[in-house]
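Revision sheet: structure tokens.
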Amino acid sequence: MQLRRLNITPTLSRSRRAFSLIELITALAISSIIVAALGSAVMIASASMPTAESELADAVGTDIDWLSIEMSEALFVKAAGGAALSLTIPDRDGDFQPELVEYAWDGITGSPLIRNYNNGPDEAVTGALDDFSVTTDSSIYTVGVSPDIMRERVDAINLKVMPSGSTRPIGRSISLANRPHNLTVWARTDFDADPTLIDRDRSGQSEWSTTTPFDETTLEQGWWRADKNLTVNNLGMLDTPFTVAKRVNLDAYDLTSVIEIVCDVDAAKGAMLYLSVWSSDSDQTISLKHRSRGWTEIAKTIEPLGPVDVTLAVEPKSDTVTLFVNDKLINASTYNSNSAATFGSIEFSKIGAYVLIDSIDVRVGGTSP
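Predicted:
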């Protein structure tokens, strides 16, 4: 039997053709795009790596953010400008007094911002700084009397900070929730504690005084059962517009609560504004009089028994006083001072027993047309 020989010689394949010019150009273009994208990614990654400068700026920025929270609570801006800021913030230690916070930078390159709390020890609250400055944004509002009293309030505190070693300044505009008023005097008490011990602006002296020591047993859940006269301190000449407001409740018959104001007057002539709230068995009468060589009633209203809000707005420039009761305009009238301003006083008093006062608010400052 004859074997058949198999032919296992491989058959050569047809030669493969080369890339065309168009294919090469397309491939090069795609490669260029990929390389460019990779290069951009590397550059972005490099830029995001922290540097000594960015770390300094971030650290100071975090410090300023924490301070901004405290500043936003300001009740009263005592001073703001240059490299210093002084303000009061709400009570934190339960003594019914605002807290005083002061910030200052000494202007020396490399020094930190210093914070002082209630005249205690100074503490550094930022890293080294090359610059620090404070400005404020303010707006004008009017107290609706005739003529209007125009006052300024602080809307925002602006900080500009330059960390040492950085070329990037840090800016913050801090909105103030309470929009503090820019006043010459602001005396307020809500009778949560002895008012003669309260120092709202932390000037070192209370805004209130009495001729005899204040009796704290007369305080009843935020009301003062008036047993003596209460006087506003440090008024000086009352020759700028001011407002006096109080909330009073006469819880028995034939009682009288009185505000006496000596404003824009000569001591010898003694032109005085005298506001009384007195009760009968069915209602209470609010009466405003002025004394300029005699007493004259210039405003009067009768209200139901119960707590009543009484506000006087006084404009010494035009000798005008306006009475509001429960936010309702009662009357505006002149009080004829007949003299130049030499001194002023505001005193709250009572006649009889069981006169309850919830709050008193005296604000001095502003301008008028």
